[in-house]
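Convert to structure. Protein one:
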Amino acid sequence: MGVVLVSCASEALREFAQLVDCSAPGTVFILEEYIEGPEFGVELVMEAGTVVFCSVMEAAKQSWGQSFQGTGRSFPCSQGALVQASIASHCIAAVRALGLTTGVIDIDVRHSKVGPRILEVNARMGGGSVLPMHDFVYNLDLMEAHVQTLLGVSVAKLAYYSLPRDPTVCYEAGWVMSPHSGSIQGMDAFLEELRVTFADHEEVVSITKLLDDGNKVVGYSEGLPTCLIQVLARGTSKMAAEEKLCVVLRKAEDHIAQLVPRVADASAAGGTGTPANGAELVEPPDFRSSAPLPVAEVSVVLAAPAALSVAVAN
């Protein structure tokens, strides 16, 4: 899942055709207006219509070319208290308007020139680094809170978790993505090697694999790339946390291509097996580059089994 930015109808149709080639059957595409401004992720814990917990974190992004991928959250939020309060109140109003009264709710929002604008509302916890980020920052298990609310167990005590346990620590999250399409091999050994390399680095909070061996993945040039590893880093400042995160990501990027043998046929990755636009393989994503600002974005939602939903990463 991810987002491709486009500037006109013909470009949107071209990107759509390319994405269809490398996406699984049943994938849903959404065309929506591109809203300029910083993006934030808001997590609410609701109990019978009452907000008992609310966090506002900046949304971390990785970009390559005209595409970008949400990688989780960044803490603390660099915006002031008034902006955060405006974002939170806007999200709470949207959730109540939708009739969502119980459980953990995830909202993606951008703060535009005219104020907060909702991108999406999900009646479940946010994905990616949202769960571990809240565990480390607030000592809060969002999964447990969600289950408790559904079982009718009061979570009113969570109001005491609204302040970070150590506001001097900053956190950044990032993903390692597949450089090309193929099938993963040797993930466990590589992950162990990576963890051993950074075992003595207390700033590296966690290194987590997202897929097991045998899974088929898509590379940068063939479509929206598959995320393979998630990294969470911390520091005494946002810059320090970001620098440590980038060190781990680049270290992993140097070796990750060995885990995904290149394929020549389309079936191996569920796509074309070669760049859909006929170009050479693109460079790995810039871990913190700014995305361009066209007028629209094509978002991809992977169809999930049963009745489960998978969020769009805007």
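Protein two, convert as well:
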Amino acid sequence: MPAKRELTMRQLRYMLRLHHDGVSARAIGRALGVARSTIQDNLRRAQASGIAWPLPAELTDDVLEQRLFARPGTQAGLRRCSEPDWGTLARELKRPGVNLMVLWEEYRQSEPDGYGYSRFCDLFREFERRLSPVMRQHHVAGDKVFVDYSGKRVAIVHPGTGVVHDAELFVGDRRDLFETIERPALKTLPAQDYEYAEWRLARVGLDYHVEVEGFFYSVPHTFIRAEVDVRIAARTVEVFHRGRRIAAHERRYGGHRHGTDPEHMPSSHRRYAEWTIERILHDAAAIGPSTAKLAALILETRPHPEQGYRACLGILRLARQYGPDRLEAACDRGLDIGARSYGSIQSILKHGLDRQRPQPIQGELLPDHPNIRGSRYYH
């Protein structure tokens, strides 16, 4: 007698589906109104029998019950007719042109009272499952392309050279899958051509720009340090924050490395938007070479050149208060001590350090670096 079971076959199928979905045995037990140990026992039986969700469509409740609850050594299913040598049939099935229908017809010729075709196929698949584990494939519309070879080749003779080539024959026996699964899922073609794009995670810099392939694209300054998603296409770069697009730019492949939308700037930066690097350097050169050199260094050392506009324009405005000669002298001293900011130049002028004669440098010369100022910076 088979082992006693406490769940209906419908409940057993439901249990296998929930287990496949990752539901715990305790939760399955609560859903079915039985103890967790009952669920665990049935899951062990299923694992030992090689049964897992999704179940084959042809697996009946009778066969499922026999496989789960038959005593050890009991052959699965009801065997009331003479059976063929399943091992021999499995080897025969690998030969070209042989299928289960051919094998069943040969079996019925020798056993007229044998199994019908459906039961014959069930028993053969059951035998196959005991041979070795296989990967179960679930056909999803549009997911994979299946190509079947017939196993036979056709000789094709070239009419000019007489060379013979063997050609593969493709079998179109998946037409029913296309008609029943693929065709209902087909949709109309989109109005626009498909555009390949890559998505990347980025963080907005302090200069309210994100970097893409060595180029920088602005976003509204309120998103500084925010984590954003960047969609990179052949012609455009789009920036999204929590699913909402906050910036879109034409993609850059050359030229200026920064693409800045004036609307993304804070008001304090927007005032300088009409200025250009060339205009700033031109006005600095009109004061003197040291002023021009200092302005160029400030612009070069900023991550984003436009962020150096404010410092440069502030330095140029000092000429109105102190005169161009004193500003040139202050910039010369600033270059000497490594000063690179508006505040440093203003301090030099305020304390009259631009009027002091440079002190001779003794000992080993120090390298020119913005972080190395020397003693003259403090006098």
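Strands lie at 148-157, 164-171, 197-203, 209-212, 215-218, 227-233, 236-241, 244-250, 258-259. The radius of gyration is 40 Å.
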